[in-house]
Structure formats: structure tokens, C-alpha cells
Amino acid sequence: MQVTKFAIPEVIFGRGSIVHVAPCARRLGAKRVLLISDRGVEESGWVEQVMDVMKASGLEWAYFNEVSSNPRDWQVRKGFEVYLEAKADVIIAIGGGSPIDAAKGIAILAGNGGRINDYEGANRVMRPLPPMVFLPTTAGSGSDMSQFCIITDVERQLKMSIISRSLVPNISIIDPLILLTKGQELIIASAIDAFSHAVESYVSRLASPFTTHQALLAMDLILPNLRRALEDGSIEALEQLSIASTAAGMSFSNAGLGAAHALAHSLGGRFDVLHGLVHPVLLPSVMRFNVPSCPQKMGTIGRCILGEPDCPDATAADEGIARLQELFAELEVPVRLRDILPDKSSLEQIAGAAVGDACNLTNPRKAGKDEFLSICESAW
Amino acid sequence: MQVTKFAIPEVIFGRGSIVHVAPCARRLGAKRVLLISDRGVEESGWVEQVMDVMKASGLEWAYFNEVSSNPRDWQVRKGFEVYLEAKADVIIAIGGGSPIDAAKGIAILAGNGGRINDYEGANRVMRPLPPMVFLPTTAGSGSDMSQFCIITDVERQLKMSIISRSLVPNISIIDPLILLTKGQELIIASAIDAFSHAVESYVSRLASPFTTHQALLAMDLILPNLRRALEDGSIEALEQLSIASTAAGMSFSNAGLGAAHALAHSLGGRFDVLHGLVHPVLLPSVMRFNVPSCPQKMGTIGRCILGEPDCPDATAADEGIARLQELFAELEVPVRLRDILPDKSSLEQIAGAAVGDACNLTNPRKAGKDEFLSICESAW
Asked: What are the extents of the domains in chain A?
């Protein structure tokens, strides 16, 4: 085994753990916090809760909420100006992947200056960032665990993958009670995103024993608990989805992702779709494309989906992918590319941009523009 | 699930990873390092290797090697004086549990002052420590991963458990090539120590999904790879033992240990025995004592030992413990308490001291002095 690295934040996990936010910020030296979130999280009352906890602890803060789904480069710039004006010293974000990714972008500018677009790719963030505490409000993005930051470059119409060890926050506080206030579409999109993280990182070129076991744990938990969460909305099922999303985050942050995410980023930069809902469309086609490069691992994934521990690799891989497509269809989410794109005119551009995405580097099978085009055709 | 915490160092794992020590120290701001090791590690040439890497990188250092097996309180004090005199800013330790635990003790005094004995117990280290980089030379202690520091109080003749989040080092560099230079007795003692970490943390009162999966990974790997390492000394088997020890370290650092370690610390403070060789004596008796409190988990452990995935809990627990005792006997290590103690005269004192050890707090079944005495009797 070659040299491998494994880095995760300090994790505080459990119902009611949101109250740890103030002592955590203080421990990191906070005098004045920049708190980042969005209107959706505000509406469900969680931003106010964080503010109440900070107020009770005597912490001061500035607040920034101009973050959209698929956060934009100019939003990062604007948040950075608020950070400067506030003379903030610690960054706290509460939200799904979008506020957390925006927070990471702001932290990059705070520590390194320049434009966020300067840092696209792997290991281009050189100077330390201000301390970060993140509270995820979805069980999916894994951004609270990861070295990844995805920001939309508006001019180039693509989502930039920025990957750096220093983007792992100091502390991630994961309170599953927050999921009780989320709608079914978001629960589904998040769980599918987490499942894709587990699958792609499990077969990644950089997978290690420390990441594969986290990926397997996530895969084991997601499908049964997603079903249960949709049936009864129970906190037990939502908590298991949180555990799975955290484990998948530990895995993909260190092992990287693959062609499905490369394509999702390129597609998501051009069309403003909910990231988690791109995977039901792309993941099965990418999995089929990858089978020849990792038949045993695809067999393991297939057995996990099918719940048939004795099924041989080739059958399990094949039938597992088919079953996954059925499961996605049962969830009533878009499952064909034609459901989310107006026509095929953008496929060339989408395929071309996917080749250069950092996630493509760790896909087990080499994919150029032609391969991405044929994946898109098979997903059409 | 109640609120749970999971913290581990940044991990750099793999053959040849020792060369990362200088860039890691630099990244943590090192100008002048305190390097800690012992004569055994010196003799195998690894201390020189670390020095060569630091020299090539232009790092200055002071060196402290007055660390014995089961490091003493006065050794920590002496190392701290070297730290002060050298005006060191980063601590690097290379060794088994002893140099690493000594390094943690020195770091506590560097950050907090006072005597090391002041910090016995859980969460008594209040002020930050200097940055720490550890390179384990055994696949067992897990000290390079953990919040634990075990120092012998010479006057009271016991091993103090000092447990604090801040004892997790910044970076652990795990190079399995180092194990190629270790003798069989140390490989055995280390593997059994790691196995005990996995078993005790798996059934601990503080076990969480993040720790139980690490414990299971460790248990799965240790027994087959220990056998293989002893047969062929292959780097592949040693590497798997390293992975297992690291996983077990992630588990016990966050979930805590149990009655076997409480007893091992009390016994090891009074008699200067190799820590890993106390477990073959104590662990089976403690496991039997614990079965009524966690029959299902003990069934899982038993199935792992037996390699029989379909065996029912009660049979698996019972036969698994018996098989473990046979395996220990086959390794030709002491398996009865009478093999390592001169007579029964110290049992009362050993049992009494075990009750107050911090590891006893997380044992699944409450154990007072009488219970520890009866465990000792059954292990005699």
C-alpha cells in the first residue's frame, strides 16, 4: 500500500448537540464570529437557535445569509467583505452543503486573499484558514467533514472543485434533530448524494482501508434507513442517515470521488439543479462504465444494494445497479437525463467540462470527453 | 443516541511515510523540536533516520531518550526540563507506547505546569499543549492515536491513566516498514494489546457507531494477520496489523476501555511487566465477567474469533473466549496470573487500585473490589 492520508474534523454527534456550538467556538479562540447560513435554515428556526446559544455564552457575531443553492463565486466575495468588516476571527456555518461550501470559500479568501477562482483544483490553498465550526442541516453533502468546496464560477458556467486539507473544519457538530424539520425531497436528495459519495469513494483510486470501511458502513445504512425515514419520519431513521452521511463524508474527503461527481459538477454549473437529484440520473450509468475496472468492488456494492451476501460479483454488480435504478424510480425522482435537460445540445459542453474536474482524477476507469458523452447518452 | 465525540489525529499511513516527519513538524510551526525515543528504537536505527530527515530539512532539535518501558513520573519531569532548556516548540516522539506516553506527559507539563500526577483521571488537562507528531514503532499501543497517557506513579506503585482530548496528537505518521525490525515477542504483545483495545472499546459504555466499526475492523484483522506475521514475517501481514492497531486506537481513544485495562494498569504499576503480555492473562476472565451485560456484542466478538458467522450469541461468546485462550496458549505467552505474579499476596492491593482507574468507568458491567478480586482468582 502506498502512503495514504486520513484527516477528519473533531466530530460532536447527537441529538441536541447544537448547544456545543458556543463552547466549541470559544475553544478555538473566538471573540467575534462570522455566522453563515441561508433563508431556508432561518425559516426552520435553527439560525435563531445558534444565535441564542452564542448570546447566552456572550459571543458576538456578524451574520451573512446571501447564499443560494449551488453557491456563486460572487457570493463568496460578498461574504468575505462581511468577514473583514466584522473583524471576525472564527467562522461558523449552519446549513446544507451550500452555506458550508460558501463558508469554506470565505475562509479561503480570509486566509489567502485573491479571488476564489484562483484556488480551483487540488492543493492550491497554501496559507492557514481561520478556525471553522460547521453544523450540517442535511444528511448528505458531507461538506462539514470534507476537504472539498464546490463553488459555481458564474462566468464559465461550471462548478469548481476546490480540494485542500485545510478545508477540513476544526469541528463538525451534527445534530440529527435538525432533520426532523426537513421536507421529504431534501431528505431523499441528501441521502442519494451520501450514497453516491460512498459508492464513488469506495471504488476510487485513492481508497484506503480507513476510507473503504466508512464507505461500506454508509452504504449499509442508507437505503434501508431512507425507506424508513420516508415511511415514519422517525428520529431513529434520520439519525442513522446522519451517521451514514458522516461516514460517507469521512470516506470521500480522503479517497476522493469519481466520474459521477465530475459530471454532476459540470452539469450543475450549467443548469441550476439540486445536486443530490443529479445522481439518480448519472450514478447508475457511471457505475456500469466502471464495472470492468473494479469488478470485485462493484460486486460488493451490488450485494449491499440487493441484500444478498452470497451473490457472485458479476451478477451482483449487474443486478445491483438495476435494482438501484428501480429504487430511484420508486422515490419518484428524475431518473433520465432527458428529465432534467431541455435537449441534447449542451451534452458536448458538459462532457468536455467533466474531463477537467478534479473528481475525475480518482475515478477507477479513465474517462475522456468521448467516455463522458457515451455515459450521458446511456443516461439519456 | 446521546451526544458522542470522535476525535483522531491527522493520519499519514504507509511504507516509507517516515520521511513526512519534517514537513509535518514545519507545518505545525516547528523551529526547534524536542525528539523523544528510547534506546531500543535507537538500536534499530529509526531515531537516526528521523534525525537525518530533520537535518536534510534544516530543522534543529534536542533529543531525550531516558524513557523506560512503563515510563515513570520522574522521567516525564526530566524530559520537561530538556524541553525547557532547548526552548523547543514542537514535540516529536518515535517509539512504542512508552516514548509516546512520555512525550504526552512532557507536553502536559509544557502547556500546564505542575506535576504530572496532578492530571490523573479524565479531563484534567485544561490548557493547550505544544504541537505533537508521533511515529509508532509497534502495532499495538495506539498511543499515537489516543487521548490516553499512561504514566507510572513510582511512589504509589500504580500506572496513572490521564485522559484528555488535548492528548490526541496533531499528526500520527505510521510506517509499517518499522515493524520489520521488531522481534516476535514485541509483535505478539503489541497485537494482543491492540486486540484488547478493540474488544474493550467495542463493549464500552461509550461505544458509538463511529467507534464500533473501527473496533470490528481491528478484530477482523488481528488474529489472522498475527498468525501470518509470525509465520512469514511479511510486510503485508505487518501492514495489516498496523491498520488494525490504528483502527483499534481510533476506537478506544473515543469509546474508552474497560476492566481488563483497569486491572492491567494497577498490576503494571506494581510489577514491571510488558503491558501487552498482561492481556492474555486478564482479558478472557474479564470477557467472561462482562458477558451478562452485553451478550449480543460478546456473541459478535466470539463469531469473529471463531470465524463462524452463523453461530448464535451465547455459544459464540462462550466458545470464542475459550478459543481465544487456546490461541494465547499457542503463542507461548503467559496465560495465567500465577505465571507473572510471585504469589497471591498483592491481589487485594491490585484489585483495590483497579476500581479507581479511569478505564473502569466505561466497563459495561460495574466492577468493585470484590469483582476485581474474583476476576483475579479466575485468572489465577
From this structure: 10-177, 183-379
